[in-house]
Specification:
By secondary structure, the chain is mainly alpha-helical. It has one domain (8-336): ABC transporter involved in vitamin B12 uptake, BtuC, CATH 1.10.3470. The chain is 70% helix and 4% strand. It has 14 helices and 4 strands. The protein has helices at 9-28, 31-54, 64-78, 87-109, 114-134, 165-188, 190-200, 202-207, 212-238, 248-261, 268-286, 290-304, 310-317, 330-341; strands at residues 144-145, 151-154, 157-161, 240-241. The strands form 2 sheets. A two-stranded antiparallel sheet has the order 1-4. A two-stranded antiparallel ribbon has the order 2-3. The model is unreliable at 1-5 and 328-342 (pLDDT under 50).
Length: 342
Amino acid sequence: MHNLKEFRLPTLLVMGACLAVAIVLPFVAPVYYVQFCAKALIMGMLAMALNLAVGHGGLVSLCHAAFFGLAGYVLALMSPGYDAASLLLSFPLAVAASTAMALVIGALALRTRGIYFIMVTLAFGEMLFFFFHDTRVAGGSDGISINVRPEIAIGGRQLLDLDKPVVFYFVVLTCLIAVMALLTMIVRSPFGHALAAARDNERRARSLGFPIFRLRLTAFAVSGALAGVAGYLAAAQFGFVAPQMLGWHQSATVLVMVLIGGLRSVTGPLVGALVLIGLEEVLKAHLEHWKLAEGLIIIAIVVLLPNGVQQIWSMIAGPAFDASSDRRRPEAKSSAVEVGHG
């Protein structure tokens, strides 16, 4: 059983401070920064979802933007003109669509390994991109607008108004905390240890009886579902969905966030997303050729901090700075073996 004792005091203090800042921020910051932070948290959620497959499962996917964008399209198609879609209906359907797509793509792509897996996921992602780009299903290359954000209404009474920036921000923050808690439980569970064992040494894990394909497909599907959560929120925030949301460049950008933050941590990709998006915002405001500067800074981070920016905190607080990571203690091995023979 893993509890708060696994976290060191400095980590608990930092986590508490970050949560306090996140809660207070919308009451003291201008609306622009509230919306900007909501966007950053959504992308952080997407990066954490991808990291379940990449960092914890060893599956480098270039199609997670497809799950992200697909959920957005489901919301757009379910939004009735100038009326609000029901959040209680559209949200589960959007996540279900992303999950189903992840199961289909995963079931086929996981029959390959290494560079072939990367190329297969890239191919499937591009197939979805061109499906929405070249057909008139949802506006084609022009995309489709969501005129009114989804709502929760009972008996004609609105219970949740996402048009209010502060309300939307707290919905995003709540979803982020829920995703973070879910991923932490997964990573620290026997399932998570077995998934990490398969990542580190597939041959040995297979010899121990681990159901490798089932483990990876489950992780890939959960990862796709969480990407769908992020995509739904992104579509609700921007009120517009376009094929570019599904493109490989979006997947590549999120992968960069994962690498900047750190592969073996649940919260690392969130930090990576905040760093990358914040860096872009600052550089855009001060430099004409900001892309060049951004590239040089990213290269410097990757070279100087090979384990991501989380490595800085590890240096300060010690190796156990993140109990949500998959660094395995002695009992982890026995837990993983139980999965293999369960």
